[in-house]
Amino acid sequence: MPEQRVVDADELILRTERQRKFITGAQAMAEAVKRANVDVAIAYPITPQSEVMHLVGDIWAQGYIRDYYRAEEEYGAMSAIAGAVRGGARAFSATSGPGLLRGLEAIASWPGHRIPVVLGVLTRVVNAPLSIQPDNVEISYLLNCGMVVLHAENQQDVFDFTLAGFVISEKVDVYIPVAVCTEGFFVTHAKGYVNITPEELKLPPRDPYKAPVPPTDCEIPPARIQRDAPVQKSNFMSYLIHAVWQQEIWSSNKRAMRYINHYLGGPIEVVNPGAEVFIVASGCAAAQGREAVRYANMEGLNVGLVKVKSIRPFPEKQVREVLSNAKAIIVPEHNIVGWLAKEVKACIPNSDAVIGGPRVYGGMTLPVELIMERVYDAFGIKKSKKVVV
Amino acid sequence: MPAEILPGPSGYIPIPAVFEDVELSPPGYGLFFGQIVDELTAMREAAKAMLTRRNPTIFPGPKILWGWNAHAMEEAKAILELAAEIPNCRIIPMPDYRPKYPKIDPEAEINPNHPNLTILHNKIEACIFVGVHCHYANLSLRMIRAGTNCFTIALCGELGHEDAMVSIRDLTPEKIRRFREVLIQVREELGISHTPTPPPENPSLPKEEFQTLSVLDYGEYSYLLIPRKDEQVTDTE
Questions:
Q1: B138 and B161 in contact (C-beta within 8 Å)?
Q2: What's the average model confidence in pLDDT over B37-61?
Q3: Residues 273..302 of A with a Cβ closer than 8 Å to B: which?
Q4: How high is the pLDDT of residue A383?
Q5: What are phi and psi of B223, to 5 degrees?
């Protein structure tokens, strides 16, 4: 392990010269953790959807992380993360599918407890039937927790979102967890080119006193170990305190947008902003959408892409502005429920223009041709031969 | 266009300023009614409110109440200097963040879980939050805006507060003293004559007698101070 030097977050993320590597998405996430000055990583490696926590264990063994252990199960892992973070540590974990849902009660309590942490979510099918194939329906379970949810298209995004995630989550005006999601197998197991920061540079350590809450309430007399006020007593005031507490979490979520702009170049990426028909996609569906735009442009069709990087906070204004003149909006997804299509429909006035699909799930791939069929439909083009998948 | 964040009562449940597009000010700037203004303007508006509205009160929070470092102690000193320049100013502390059951003593303290009880009981129409952790300050500011007509001012060591009528960020002891200078100037412009007077003692708290203080005076928390059986404390700060 090389001697690591602490550099300013902006310097590390935005300005250092990067090296090009050919690595998997799982490796990209571990490489980001290596540079994030993480104190503790806690894992419960269910039937592996990715090797992220295995690789993070390796970098712990190499000395990049101060502590690492395997919890008794996901609920225990996510609860231990909360304890470590309250104690002032910078923490990391990763999970997927059924593991995510098993830990969800603890995860959903992180934002309200003001737990800044990064959680890798390497999506897989939610049982039953049992499967370990990629399907991102589990992201929909995270959308109402209050946490920041980023969705990575490729290995480069995984590296960038993970590293920036630590910085965003620890901003005093944000201070809620960041989930970095990406598709298992399609991204985690496939290799791609990633420009990564030098191994010998790392983020500054977490400063637990730079916080909107005391690191632990033991420091504020009278001492107590829980941060959540016991507001369950039945009177009007307790209802109101819970209401404004929830508001504070969602305000913090919205405040994350300024840092998403700063570190990730904004919550969306737009290709061909003057297009008649748009493909709106997140995660690796955006990669297929990008390819569909290329196909369409080769055929002289004016198609654009909106890649949504940040699902929470959802970039309502930006999406509404880009799509204001769209004739049709195609939303390809890797899940059956179409959570992204619903988000898009909810934030634009012309929701009839949204074509919810194509959707694939259960581990199926998303062929570009499937998206192109919707493109042809949107332009009223009748193809004599439909693509057989 | 961000909404105007005006004194309440705004209604049954407040709408957070962030939901209405109010953003925190950049360094060197403050917020006045939800709009970004230069820091001097923010300070002048805060001074006007504290000098002209009824029962101006400063609510110091744990970050400066408990002298846990030299910076906190210096800020506390600067706050006392500021309070002395505001006619009829009172100091009511927010010493911790636990809800007070069965009933808060609103003359003794304010609490983020039900801050409006203290505001309404004391008919406070202008107040300063200082040294309160941002999360709890935001809860308080929003509840106060919902249920009272109090003009809230946030002096924040971090990035400020959207729900306050005036927000000043990156607070230091020097900045508190600069605010005091601005306040004196505004006071003179308004023709208010005042001799610097320390705020009154908190009427609800017993006088602290450090000479005779016993661990038992800490009531249910005394066990935190009493050494365990056979424990010998030899090393002290």
A1: yes
A2: 98
A3: none
A4: 79
A5: -65, -25
What pLDDT is attached to residue A221?
47
Which structure tokens are listed for A25?
Answer: 């998405």
Residues of B with CB under 8 A from a CB of A: 13-14, 16-19, 23-24, 62, 66, 68, 95-99, 101, 112-114, 117, 133-136, 138-139, 142-143, 146, 158-159, 162, 220-221, 224
For chain B, percent helix, then strand, then coil, each to nearest 5? Answer: 35, 10, 55
3-state secondary structure (DSSP) of residue B234: coil
- Is the sign of the CA dihedral B164, B166, B167, B172 positive or negative? negative
Q: Which residues contact A89 (CB under 8 A, 6 or more apart)?
A: A39, A40, A66, A206
Q: Can you give the pLDDT at residue A339?
A: 98
Confirm if B128 and B94 have CB atoms less than 8 A apart: no
- Which residue is it, tokens 């950049």? B26
Considering only the beta carbons, identify the residue of A223, A233, A247 that sits closest to B101: A233
Angle between helices A284-298 and A368-379 (to 10 degrees): 50
Helix (H, G, I), strand (E, B) or coil at B155: strand
Contact of A30 with A192, CB cutoff 8 Å: no
Q: How far apart are CA B36 and CA B17, in angstroms?
A: 13
- A277: its two tokens: 């028909």
Given a cut of 70, the residues of chain A with pLDDT beneath it are: 46-48, 217-238, 384-389
Chain A closest-CA separation from residue B190 CA (Å): 36
B204 pLDDT tier (thresholds 50, 70, 90): confident
Suggest the residue from B65, B66, B132, B138 to mutate for an interface test with chain A (most A CBs closer than 10 A): B138
Judging by DSSP bridges, how do beta strands A310-312 and A148-151 pair with one another? antiparallel
Q: Are A174 and A252 in contact (CB under 8 A)?
A: yes
What's the pLDDT at A222? Answer: 42
The amino acid sitting at B5 is I
Pairing, β A268-271 against β A303-308: antiparallel
Q: Binning pLDDT at 50, 70 and 90, where does residue B235 land?
A: low
Joined together, the tokens standing for residue B13 give: 């449940």
